[in-house]
Inverse folding.
């Protein structure tokens, strides 16, 4: 069976083979080290290697560190990849400030202190992971927004269509208002529940999966009820949220208890808090 590689990936850009071997031997237990021997080679391969971060030497032939950094930070596909620069030369204050202005996030000095090298690598990897998660969240938010915008537009088109059909059917104004009210209520409930689901499963990830693993015959509607009970909401509150009568919610709770095979002395809400 194929296993997932959980190691981080580093693109090491250095023309000194000795430096490459030092970094590789120090970090290879925790990271996959991909080596490039000059800046141009790094630019040519970075989109394929997809590193978590780059360790970039300052002084190299073909293309030096600062020029390479400039290229990476001006490319939309690579600008978010953290870069730490190896410095042994050109380390005056003006040079370091210039590198920071170009986008470098840290420096590692030569000759290497191996403990420092490990610590810096781990710190930068954590930062890279944070950046990736933030970018993924933003992308997900944009996709969610786009989907909601499409749903709103579709809903409005549906309302326009209903108005046109109502004219053809000769409905009076009160019938028309009732139909529109019903449509809007349905839309509001649907959207509200979608937002609730998003927030609930962000706070309690895996709740539905874990519940289904132990009780595979639980229906989507019962998972919805279970998630509301998980928050210790009472019958009246749940009935208001789901636009159902309290009696209907009580019946649904009883059915859910039976599906979960709970003994009478087991509290339903307390049981659901285990998932």
């Amino acid at each position: 069976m194929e296993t997932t590689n959980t190691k981080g990936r580093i693109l090491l850009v250095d023309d000194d083979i000795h430096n490459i071997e030092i970094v590789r031997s120090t970090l290879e237990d925790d990271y996959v080290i991909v080596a490039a021997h000059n800046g141009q080679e790094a630019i040519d391969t970075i989109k394929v290697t997809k590193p978590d971060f780059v360790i970039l030497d300052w002084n190299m032939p073909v293309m030096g560190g600062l020029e390479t950094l400039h290229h990476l930070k001006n490319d939309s596909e690579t600008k978010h990849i953290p870069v730490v620069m190896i410095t042994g030369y050109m380390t005056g204050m003006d040079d370091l400030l210039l590198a920071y202005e170009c986008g470098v996030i840290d420096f590692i000095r030569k000759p290497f202190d191996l403990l420092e090298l490990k610590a810096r690598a781990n710190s930068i990897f954590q930062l890279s992971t944070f950046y990736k998660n933030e970018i993924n969240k933003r992308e997900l938010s944009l996709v969610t927004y786009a989907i909601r915008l499409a749903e709103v537009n579709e809903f409005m088109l549906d309302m326009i269509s209903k108005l046109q059909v109502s004219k053809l059917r000769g409905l009076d104004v009160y019938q028309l208002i009732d139909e529109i009210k019903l449509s809007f209520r349905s839309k509001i409930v649907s959207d509200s529940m979608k937002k609730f689901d998003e927030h609930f499963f962000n706070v309690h990830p895996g709740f539905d999966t874990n519940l289904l693993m132990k009780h595979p015959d639980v229906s989507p509607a019962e998972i919805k009820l279970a998630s509301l009970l998980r928050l210790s909401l009472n019958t009246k509150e749940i009935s208001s949220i789901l636009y159902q009568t309290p009696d209907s919610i009580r019946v649904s709770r009883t059915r859910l208890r039976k599906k979960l095979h709970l003994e009478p002395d087991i509290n339903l809400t307390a049981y659901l808090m285990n998932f």
Summary: The CA atoms of residues 230 and 272 lie 6 Å apart. The chain has a mean pLDDT of 80. The chain has three domains: 8-130, 135-203, 207-272. The radius of gyration is 29 Å.
